Amino acid sequence: MGTQRPTGPAGDDQVARLTALIVRQQGELEAVRAQAATEALVDLAIGVLTERLRCSPGEAARQLTHLAARSGMPLAELAADVVGQPAGDALVRGSAQPPRHQPAQLADAPAPRAVDGSRIAAATLEEALAPLGAVAVALWMTEPDGALELVGEAGLSALEASRWQRLPPQMDCPAQRVVQDGCPRWWPAAQHLPRPLPLVGPWRGARAVLPLTDAGALLGAMEICWPQPLEEFAPALRHQLLTLAGICASSLGVQGERTWGRHGSWLPALLDSLLRSALVAHAVRDQDGRIVDFQIDHVSDGFVDPAGRGPRDLVGRRLSHVHPLMTVPDGLFEHAVDVLRTGQPYQADSLPVHVIVGDRIVATEMDVRIGRLFDGIALTWRRADDSNGLTTILQHAQRLGELGGWQQDVLTGDVRWTDHTFTLFRLMPGAPEAPISLQGLDAHVHADDLDAVRRFRDVLFNQVRPAATTFRLLRADGAIRQIRAFAEPVTDAAGTLVAVRGTYQDLSTLYHTQVALAATRDQLADTEQRADDQQRLAIQLQRAITPFSADPVETAGFDIAVRYRPANQDHLVGGDWYDAVVLPSGEVLLTVGDIAGHGIRAVTGMVTLRNSLRGLAMTGAGPAQLLRWLNDVAYHLTDDVTGTAVCGLYDPATRVLRWACAGHLPPVLVRDGDAGTLPLPAGVLLGADPHSAYEETATALRPGDGILLFTDGLIERRGSALDEALDTLVLVAGRPIADLQRYADHLLRHTTPDTDDDTCLIAVHLR
């Protein structure tokens, strides 16, 4: 469904007619304000100069006075000439652009006389808005508390007008939104209206809500209603309506009455009489209506400036220039903006206010209050009282230290507690049993601690000496707390005891921590003892199963050397193992393995797999089948033991080594003085997967060849990849084998692992 245009002229004719109406309206409104012919003529001249020179009324008045003085003409005659000047006169020096908002200089603006707002609204609707199709207009002005007061309306029923007489600052409506952010609202059609917001009148057509500003000061809001939608608010139309809102604001004559002009001196006088240290500032906004600063309008004679400046140094300056550190995030400037936006006052006690004094930043604790006043703020502060500050520090110290003070008068028996003492005892001030005297303390103390409390009282009252004790307090909420009491006697000039005073301190947290620490020490000592026992058992078991030296296997044409190098640290005893044994078939079983982990669990796992492999080898099965069975043992018959292994069977008759691998490092073949790793057959580590399969491979050996089987402890280094470590071993092993035992020692001597892991090595040499 298309939108309908307003009745009346459209396009350029419409703009031209509206411009003419605005000019005539301005003249009529100026005439209404005049009470005498001369004053009316002067005011009209000021209005003409304001429009043509694009300046504030104060600047136009000064310009008119200056021209009269220079020309020698009476002010009234010059005003008549100015009003009679044709367009394009030399006085017209402004551009065609709308004037930019300047910060309000309240003292410079002439004090206009108030005009009936309803007459202004009626004339505005009849002469300017009705030809555009508008049916109603409402004018509100800002009150000191941020509320909006309806000062004029036209087109509304009496009932509707009465409902919109006063809009509190917390009321969410278009007019308050415009006043809070200074931005106009344009709604060409009903679907653009914010549905949750209450709207003036029954119309759901186009609507414009505009700020009423004069010389940069935001004075209120103006709402215009259309019964039908508009296609759009064209830029020219928006400019004309904003200009009309500015003329209405200037004509209402409220600026001088609501700010610090000569007619409004009663308000700063009232503030000075009520508040010794007060500062009043109005908001400075940019062209988009955002608050960018506050300009100081008034400072009371007793105002306390943290930097030591007086009222003459502050009035007329911007708040950010006077106190730039207030603009830091979450500083007083942000709080002032929130106060103006929401209407909710801000207050803070003992707030550190940072100011620049000379070349230093000084922090002063201030009690701060900020409230909204028209389109600005009233700020009052005073230095936080030093005694109050010390009291606050003492209260925090009592809370942090779980301390509570008390004093008992000996003559009257009166007892006084600090606030935190009530907290320690979980008693409310004013309760019948609170505060508790030292004599009445027995009813709140554990029976086993009564003697200690009685001795504490005896030292204080009878021996008149300072005393201290510890007791368990049976608190009102059923909890038992460990309390430490300190006290001293108070005597008069004659040495007579007149009072006792002291503190209670809740040591429960410390006491429970000490108890828990003692229990932890005992548990740790027991755990260390059991760990040492297990470690000794693991070392003994490992040395019994895998001795550090072993006799070589004796078989024709076959030399073997085995080496075992334990970890440097006993607590890292691991599960590395090896075996070399001649089977009944005449084959030689050669195997090395490494169980994951350290300690008794790794050693028992090593014993299980080593002995199981020996027994399984008696079946005559090949290496791949032996590893499949050994994987079943690791998976099903151990407690989550995993590990790697190389299993080989050497046949002296054929000189063939059949071998399989379960995730282990490959053997190294030494031939003719050169060394290299054998290609790895497939096979994952033992105990990981019950369905693992292992591949078997055969390596034909020649006389003079050497085979090295080893665990990773021989080569592993922190920060180095295993491939690099293997390459290093190949370089060390690449030499002719003359004496196998010396050759094995040479390998151990020239490999330098740094992981403190066990090392197993089997070196084989074929003659």
What does this protein look like?
The chain is built from 20 helices and 26 strands. A hairpin with a 2-residue loop joins strand 5 (207-214) and strand 6 (217-225). Helix 1 packs parallel to helix 8, helix 16 (508-545) runs parallel beside helix 17 (600-617) and helix 17 packs across helix 18.
Approximate helicity band: 25-40%
Number of helices: 20
Overall mean confidence score, pLDDT: 79
Q: Total strand count, please?
A: 26
Estimate what percentage of residues fall within beta strands: 25-35%
- State the oligomer: single chain
Morphology: elongated
The rounded distance between the terminal residues' Cα atoms is: 106 Å
Give the biggest beta sheet: 6 strands, antiparallel
User: Which structural category do the helix and sheet elements fall into?
Assistant: alpha+beta
Protein name: Diguanylate cyclase
Coiled coil: 517-544
Region (Disordered): 92-112
Keywords: Coiled coil, Hydrolase, Transcription, Transcription regulation
